[in-house]
Hints:
Blueprint (H helix, E strand, L loop, with lengths): L10 H4 L1 H9 L10 H29 L5 H26 L1 H18 L4 H45 L16 H4 L4 H25 L2 H21 L9 H56 L5 H36 L9 H14 L14 H22 L1
Helix pairs in contact: 2-8, 3-4, 3-8, 4-8, 4-10, 6-8, 6-9, 6-11, 9-10, 9-11, 10-11, 10-12, 10-13, 11-12, 11-13
Amino acid sequence: MSNILDENLKFDTKFWIATFAMRINRSHPYIPRDRLWRMQFTAILTLSGACFFFLMYSIFAHDIQCGEYTEACKNTIMAIVAYTITYKYSILLRYQDSVTDLIRIVDEDYELAKDFCEEEQRIVSHYADRGVKVCQYWFVSACSTSAIFPMKAFMIMGKAYMAGEFKFVPMFELTYPWILNDYKNVHVIFVILFSLTLFFDFYATSMYVGFDPVVPIFMLHLCGQIDILNLRISKLFSNSTDSVEVVQQNLRKILVKLQEIYQFVEVIKKNFTFLYEFIMKTTTFLLPLSAFQITESLRNGELNLEFMGFFSGVILHFFIPCYYSDLLMETGERFRLAIYSCGWEKHSDQRTVRTILFMLTRAVKPLVISTVFCAICLDTFAEMCRESYSIFNLMNAAWA
């Protein structure tokens, strides 16, 4: 039997882009929560919290009061991002053991797959490769978007220097509290504040690259496991020479694996239901806010590259889980049809027939990830886009 899968196939090595990013920001569930980690986490949380505080101060103490709604929208976007990445970090901390178990199950499935037939190994390899593409999508999107902010500031400062009129240009135009605002253009203070925002930029990038591909990878892995069961159950009654005991044994293995898949899905729902509800709600506001930034820049004859990249990243933020959750639902429906079409009606053993009927009954319930109030699917994504467009129209009518 040919072995298509890599002998060293593991979650950490296959999806190294995501796991490496999580190790950089110290959120990887395998990192021991010892004294060194607590010091690192405290430093990260303190710096990120300082950025969030400065953003909120600038929004409410200056931007809104002075009627600068474009700047208020821009800083609100960054404040939502700051809160979102902290919330994601808290999810990884709260469900560390659970996420570790999910990764362990994936590794165990990869190890078992090395003894599968060639066709089943190809299925496992196909869905693992799709998971790698998700990591690559997020790496390109997050890195390209975040890199624009410091690059733009450096380019403007460089252009001013070449023209003999050098001036400091911050990454984010903020109004700082008290005396700090009066000295924000002093060399040392500017470098400190610029370094703080640059850290926030890098930290947010590592959280999006590390965290967001994880659940889609889990969903793709489940799709692969269901496709394998689909293949096996279609062959369950194909060999007329198999005894009743052999059929029951093969069916029992399918049923046990199916129960494990259902449990896997339930764990994902338990861990990430509130997170995806939060992401859906924040995306509903981030899309019109970032679109408003782009349209306002175009009205002023400018091209807002940073928020063009941010706009595409916001779409990706909710589209990817919706797309792969929809794929999981379709895969579950195909499996239900495979159960019904496997030829069970020609089998005389009543225990086997009852088991098949039980599987059919259970398969009626859609296999899908959900938020608190609705399933995560492409229909939900379309509804979110419609709501965002309505908010965008209101913003244009009120502030444009």
